[in-house]
Design a protein that fits this description.
With 318 residues, the chain is α/β, with parallel strands linked by helices. The chain contains nine helices and ten strands. Helix 8 runs antiparallel to helix 9. The structure holds zinc ion. Zinc ion (ZN) binds next to loops.
């Protein structure tokens, strides 16, 4: 769908109301199957990890079950890791990178970390290859309080009993050419604002939390992913997607203030991956591999930084 089709919804300068949102929704055909592409693989990958149904999204006539993987032997003494994908449903490698991590790498971490993995947070948008949910809301601006979208609320509910335990959260995203051609124009039209154009970086980058950037951690992930795909260079202004570069391939936002999924826990280490799938230098397989590699590198860093051996009790020394 071209940006032109968004420009004709609504009145320039006026935010959308219900009629405009309904019209927009009617223009979003289903392009792929969450059941076939996500639920079937989840079923096949269940071994070793428990598969939890943590909610469902009732977008009549469609109902989307929400599934997550959880370590069967969850132990409070181990560092806990949250992996999320598909908060933006169109960002395909976020979903399939999370599944690839489960398939190929999760077993390596059994008994070393607790894993909670929600591979496709926004399935309606996965099927439409879109950024928003059916109410024309961006789930990745809705992770505040109890969550202002159903997608965020369900994930917040899933992690609530474990929230204090997370040491690491990695949220898997993409930056795409359609951000510039489709989603930024749609956002401007929806909010009745002037469109702001920008550049799309060619390559992988990370978005940390500006409140706690943890640059050694971010750099460890960048170094691992650089062996799989290229890292986005700075633009002509020395920035990436308009933000100051903190270290090569790393920028940061105030993630909690923005209501980003990356702020959903209080984990010390948090990052958002941004794979660039439209690069002529990256295949879909490479994008999935970059996501899974980022998850492994992030966990490996945390394991190095946080020895899991329990402290010796004074009573054992006498
Ligand atoms: Zn995204």
């Amino acid at each position: 769908m071209s940006s032109q089709s968004f420009a004709v919804i609504g009145t320039p300068g006026q935010p959308w109301g219900d009629a405009e949102r309904t019209l927009w929704r009617s223009q979003q055909p289903r392009k792929r199957s969450y059941a076939d592409e996500v639920l079937v693989p989840i079923d096949a990958l269940g071994a070793g990890l428990e598969v939890l149904r943590y909610g469902e999204l009732d977008y009549a006539p469609e109902v989307y079950p929400l599934l997550a993987f959880k370590s069967r032997d969850w132990r409070d003494s181990l560092p806990s890791v949250l992996v999320t994908g598909g908060v933006h449903g169109y960002e395909t490698s976020g979903v399939h990178g999370a599944l690839r991590f489960v398939e190929r790498h999760a077993a390596d971490y059994a008994g070393r970390v607790n894993l909670l993995i929600a591979p496709c947070v926004s399935p309606w948008a996965y099927e439409r290859v879109h950024r928003w949910n059916p109410l024309a809301l961006d789930p990745n601006r809705s992770f505040r309080d109890a969550g202002s979208t159903a997608e965020a609320a369900a994930l917040i509910g899933l992690i609530a009993p474990l929230r204090e335990q997370f040491v690491l959260h990695i949220d898997l995203h993409e930056t795409t050419d359609s951000d510039e051609t489709e989603f930024r124009p749609a956002l401007a039209a929806r909010d009745g604002k002037a469109r702001q154009s920008g550049e799309i970086p060619d390559g992988f980058y990370l978005v940390g939390d500006s409140e706690k950037p943890e640059l050694d951690f971010q750099q460890a992930v960048i170094e691992a992913v650089a062996r799989v795909t290229h890292i986005a260079p700075a633009d002509a202004h020395g920035r990436l997607i308009g933000a100051q570069i903190l270290s090569p391939g790393v920028i940061a936002y105030p993630v909690k203030k923005l209501g980003l999924c990356a702020g959903v826990t209080d984990a010390r280490y948090t990052t958002t991956t941004e794979v660039y799938p439209d690069s002529p230098r990256a295949t879909a397989q490479q994008c999935n591999q970059a996501q899974a590699t980022a998850v492994c590198a992030a966990i490996d860093f945390v394991l190095r930084a946080q020895p899991t051996t329990r402290p010796v009790q004074a009573s054992e020394l006498v």
